[in-house]
Design goal:
Blueprint (H helix, E strand, L loop, with lengths): L3 H13 L2 E2 H12 L3 H13 L3 E4 L2 E4 L3 H17 L3 H9 L6 H13 L4
Helix pairs in contact: 1-2
């Protein structure tokens, strides 16, 4: 599980990997407003958690962004909607309409993930 600052940091890594640690410091200063010490502290923390690795001053992610997004989404739906995807969709749409193309895409995704 990643808190917001961890996720923002991982976004920089995912968008730039493989990235030299010196370049990562520069990117974090530009994108997150962080100092060098903050970047290295966060990098150490996320390496210890197994989300990133820093070998020979080259930083890469150990877990794909899609895996983290899937786990976070599943946790959110479970905690907020008791695991009910239909309840989540009703709440998310909140009376909004969607296009025929969006409806077709959702149907395609649902069909692709049906049991059996």
């Amino acid at each position: 599980r990643l808190c917001e600052s961890d996720y923002r940091f991982m976004d920089v890594i995912w968008d730039s990997e493989p990235v030299n640690s010196t370049k990562l410091v520069e990117l974090c200063r530009e994108k997150l407003g962080w100092k060098k010490s903050t970047t290295y502290t966060m990098l150490k923390k996320l390496c210890e958690k197994g989300f990133a690795q820093n070998e020979n001053a080259v930083v890469t992610a150990r877990i794909p962004r899609s895996d983290v997004q899937a786990a976070e989404s599943e946790l959110f739906v479970e905690q907020t909607f008791g695991g009910s995807l239909p309840n989540f969709l009703v709440s998310f749409l909140g009376g909004k309409t969607i296009s025929e193309q969006e409806a077709a895409e959702l149907k395609r995704l649902i069909d692709a993930h049906k049991e059996g």
